[in-house]
Structure prediction request, 205 residues.
Amino acid sequence: MSSEQINTKASRTVMIMAITATFASLAFGYDTGVINGALPYMAEPDQLNLTPALEGLVVSAICIGAAFGSALGGRISDILGRKPALTYLSILFFISTLGCALSINATMIIIFRFTLGLAVGSASTIVPAYLAEIATGNLRGSLVVLMELVIVSGQLLAYSKCYYCYYTWTRSSCLALYFSNSSYSCYSIIFWYVNKQRISSLACC
Prediction:
């Protein structure tokens, strides 16, 4: 196999890995934006009956968690490695978003929003480091910028879903859809295990 073919194969594999890794960034943007549409429904008496103070805690819990997550994310990835850390983050995203969708009181959703923030903050430090490490020289700049693009795309997706649900679906359906980004995390988990050998064969990883 020629060096040109090897480089083409490596670049293709790097792109697949990068796209999958940025699903954490998509969840990052989605989770920080989706609360804007969900909060009015959660505050209603027949839902979670949130007071103004509890509304503030529900919204800010993810930011508090993200502060801790960003501080700890680098250290965790140094201990576990970038790929295992991203896999565990995907699992945490999945459990936390599912917990948010199934919360029956304010305490539950605040706790799950906090753990979601831990995943969001960790992803914000691990994903760009991982992308920079796996990228070949000609792709490094574009892949790191890709993370920022995917974050705002996640926010756009969240706002679009909120708008769609407001005019078409019931409140219970809306709440389920608002936290549907658990499917993105599930995709990442499946990818890492199905393609584990293929990814490990790439020397730059």
About this structure: Residues 20 and 187 are 8 Å apart (CA to CA). Residues 1-6, 197-205 have pLDDT under 50 and may be disordered. The first helix runs from residue 3 to 21.
